[in-house]
Write a structure and sequence with these properties.
Helix content is 61%, strand content 6%. With 479 residues, the chain is α/β, with parallel strands linked by helices. A six-stranded parallel β-sheet has the order 3-2-1-4-5-6.
Length: 479
């Protein structure tokens, strides 16, 4: 069928263009939803193009169509259920799981080609070497991505803790041993396409576990974005394996985007990628170094009523959302509070730290879900100069990203990390359940400052009480 080749080329080209537009659109909150739809359409077109090409070249039997249809229905149903039922607080775990699924898909594609090679032998010696090398890369990166993502998901969900041995030098020996075994398996596999196949798969699986297991919660946003990059690299390698230009281009774009995001996250935490992957958990290292320790000596607590009285007299208020806000699912209650303040002609903005929450953009998505205007969301570099002119800062569940130790204490593991300068405001209210530390396990010096007051309680309940107090005071009633 001579018409199949140009039709598939057109479909692949359109899919690549839509995917590129989708990835570009995801960089802005305002266009993210539409960009996600474009990317989904691109993937549908890509799958259709693969089926069209397979039908035109080797044909697809009835039994194959049954497997394809069943797999599509099951996968689509699971995806729809996940999208509807998973709460926003668990979204980082879902992203990690999706990264793992992408890695496993690339691994299975390469595994299938290695176990059932084409019998035409038309690739030649050079083509055979390229194919075998691509299989090695796809198996190696795909296995690491899958096992590492599953470990990341389990740690985020609280199913898995960091074993003590992973904070010792023994972990480096284990990881090096797995890498060497994987390399040996890759060499054998590159020579004839099958020897060493399962050696590289098993060693790579163990390497993914060994690298991810020691990493603490504070560094998990970096790990998630890095695993996303890995899944793109694995997909690009799988594209070389099956000769799909679309898969190569899509995988390369995802891999590059994930790597750039990883670097942005490292910059936001003042951490190098090497220290994240091989330095162990940040919390453990802080305890070992002794930095950031000590007891709180000047804690001031207040009630929602006192907080409401201060907000009533304010002209400018900055909200700092954190993971505690997400856990309490309090974003909609927060939006009601800010509407009351806005009706009283009080200026309200939101300070967004690049690593607030558990994944990049976590707070942006959370606030967008509550219909917070995009123009009120300000990034750290933009909002920091405005804190000295701010009357009230309301910190909701954030911890490490507002810790002044990052600028004042050279012995602290957080020192040098860019943080929100909330202490520069006239008054700071911190809403927390208790005095527990953040992911880093480090005391927050903000809580001891004279202009800081703690409002203890669940964020949703505290904001609900605050809303009632503001209404009783008549704030915003003229609006």
């Amino acid at each position: 069928m001579t018409f199949i080749a140009p039709v598939k080329f057109a479909i692949d080209l359109l899919a690549v263009l839509l995917l590129a537009l989708g990835i570009k659109g995801l960089s802005k909150v305002r266009s993210a939803r539409e960009a996600n739809r474009l990317a989904a359409i691109a993937m549908i077109l890509a799958a259709f193009g693969v089926l069209l090409n397979s039908q035109g070249t080797i044909g697809i039997s009835i039994n194959s169509w049954i497997w394809i249809i069943c797999g599509t229905l099951i996968g689509g149903l699971l995806g729809a259920i996940t999208a509807k039922r998973v709460p926003m607080t668990a979204m980082p775990e879902v992203v990690a799981l999706f990264n793992g699924c992408g890695g496993m898909s690339s691994l299975l594609v390469a595994l299938g080609v290695a176990l059932f090679p084409s019998a035409d032998g038309s690739d030649g010696v050079v083509g055979e070497l390229i194919r075998n090398f691509s299989i090695v890369v796809s198996l190696f990166v795909g296995a690491i991505t899958f096992s590492g993502s599953i470990v990341a998901m389990a740690k985020l969900q609280g199913w898995l803790s960091t074993p003590s041995w992973t904070q010792s030098k023994a972990r480096h020996f284990f990881n090096i041993l797995c890498a060497v075994i994987a390399l040996i398996g890759g060499i054998y596999l590159s020579i004839d396409g099958q020897n060493g196949l399962f050696l590289i798969v098993v060693a790579s699986f163990l390497l993914g576990i060994g690298v991810t297991l020691p990493i603490g919660g504070a560094d998990m946003p970096v790990v998630i974005s890095l695993l996303n990059s890995y899944s793109g690299v694995a997909a690009a390698a799988a594209g070389f394996v099956v000769g799909s230009q679309l898969l190569i281009v899509a995988g390369a774009m995802v891999g590059a985007a994930g790597l750039i995001l990883t670097q942005v996250m490292c910059d936001g935490m003042n951490r190098s990628l090497v220290s994240v992957l091989f330095g162990g958990a940040l919390g453990a290292s802080s305890v070992a170094s002794g930095g950031g320790g000590g007891e709180y000596t000047n804690i001031t607590s207040c009630s929602p009523e006192e907080c409401a009285l201060t907000l009533e007299a304010a002209e400018r208020v900055v909200i700092v959302p954190g993971y505690g806000l997400a856990v309490a699912q309090a974003q909609h209650t927060l939006r009601e509070v800010t509407r009351v303040l806005e009706n009283a002609d009080i200026e309200v903005t939101y300070a967004i730290h690049p690593v607030a929450g558990r994944m990049p953009g976590h707070m942006n998505v959370l606030l967008a879900e509550a219909d917070v205007p995009y123009e009120q969301l300000k990034e750290m570099d933009v909002i920091n100069p405005e804190f000295p002119g701010t009357d009230v800062v309301l910190v909701l569940g954030a911890n490490d990203v507002v810790n002044p130790q990052a600028k004042n204490d050279q012995t602290s593991p957080l020192y040098g990390m860019p943080v929100l300068d909330v202490q520069e405001a006239r008054t700071v209210f911190v809403v927390k359940r208790g005095m527990s530390a953040g992911y880093s396990g480090i005391k927050n010096d903000l809580f001891d400052l004279q202009n800081t007051s703690m409002v203890f309680g669940d964020a949703k309940k505290v904001l609900g009480d605050l809303l009632l107090e503001l209404k009783e005071l008549g704030v915003g009633s003229k609006g």
